[in-house]
From TrEMBL:
Family: Belongs to the CDS family.
Membrane topology: Multi-pass membrane protein
Residues passing through the membrane, by range: 6-34, 46-66, 72-96, 108-126, 132-153, 174-193, 199-219
Pfam families noted in UniProt: CTP_transf_1
The UniProt record lists the keyword Aminoacyl-tRNA synthetase: no
Subcellular location as annotated: Cell membrane
GO molecular-function terms, A-Z: phosphatidate cytidylyltransferase activity
Keyword list, A-Z: Cell membrane, Lipid biosynthesis, Lipid metabolism, Membrane, Nucleotidyltransferase, Phospholipid biosynthesis, Phospholipid metabolism, Transferase, Transmembrane, Transmembrane helix
One Gene Ontology term, aspect cellular component: plasma membrane
Protein name: Phosphatidate cytidylyltransferase
Domain of life where this protein originates: Bacteria
Source organism: Cytobacillus solani
Length: 262
């Protein structure tokens, strides 16, 4: 527990000031975190990021992460992000032939989906911060409240397993408790901040974000169970890897855009 607390303090001391500053530091941070997360995902599949498919995945990730203010860079060469993704698919498939199927069709699918999963999530981290610091803090506090509420309420009264095949310790009672704690945080945001929403809007959005934050956590748990790994990485002692810390937020940041804020 001591190691876990120290790691959280050190990471928070780096992450929070950068987020508060905003601008280019956030873009650089997103690129760094996303690159590490992609490395962790490829490693689960036993794919080396310092390889032809690894480099293609990384370059495609960096293109996906380009924020709106740098869209002109893509316009210069008349390519959209989707077209770059299609080009990457062709290169991946060509590589299956070059390697005589040592790099398989399944590896192609994994590489593309891993890049999209990480790239979309961290792209919307950049865009969310661009729209306002309040939205980043709202997403962070909603997920922290959901995780803490699910853990403590689940330990106190949890009996019915939520999804034992994927995450055997999570309970239905804990999951509901996590949503309830997130709703309390949403009310506090409405009372003490200038977040632009009515009470009904904010409560409805919070339920969706809290539920999908838990789904994001389960998705990463399913990945780790499938590939038989305990943690996605070791960069944060006591916490695991970047994916272990951002799995819920990779779902929440895009959803903030899709359902409400922008």
């Amino acid at each position: 527990m001591k190691q876990r607390i120290i790691s959280a303090i050190v990471f928070g001391a780096i992450f929070l000031p950068v987020v508060i500053i905003g601008g280019m530091p956030v873009v650089i941070l997103a690129y760094l975190l996303a690159s590490i997360a992609l490395y962790e995902l490829l490693k689960m599949r036993k794919l080396n990021i310092i390889s032809v498919p690894g480099i293609i995945s990384l370059l495609l990730l960096w293109i996906f992460l380009l924020p709106n203010q740098f869209q002109a860079l893509l316009n210069i060469i008349h390519f959209t992000k989707i077209e770059f993704a299609l080009l990457a698919v062709l290169l991946f498939l060509t590589y299956t032939v070059v390697t005589k199927n040592r790099f398989t069709f399944d590896d192609v699918a994994f590489s593309i989906l891993a890049t999209l999963y990480v790239g979309i999530g961290f792209y919307y981290f950049i865009e969310t911060r661009e729209e306002g610091l309040i939205f980043i803090f709202f997403s962070l506090f909603i997920i922290w409240a959901t995780d803490s509420g699910a853990y403590f309420i689940g330990r106190a009264i949890g009996k019915k397993k939520l999804w034992p095949e994927i995450s055997p310790n999570k309970t239905i009672e804990g999951s509901i408790g996590g949503v309830f704690c997130a709703l309390i945080v949403a009310v506090l945001f409405l009372l003490f901040t200038n977040i632009p929403a009515s009470l009904f809007q904010l409560l409805l959005i919070t339920v969706v974000l809290s539920v999908f934050g838990q789904i994001g956590d389960l998705v990463e748990s399913a990945l780790k169970r499938h590939y038989d790994v305990k943690d996605s990485g070791k960069i944060m002692p006591g916490h695991g890897g970047i994916l272990d810390r951002f799995d819920s937020l990779l779902f929440v940041w895009p959803l903030i855009h899709f359902i409400y804020l922008f």
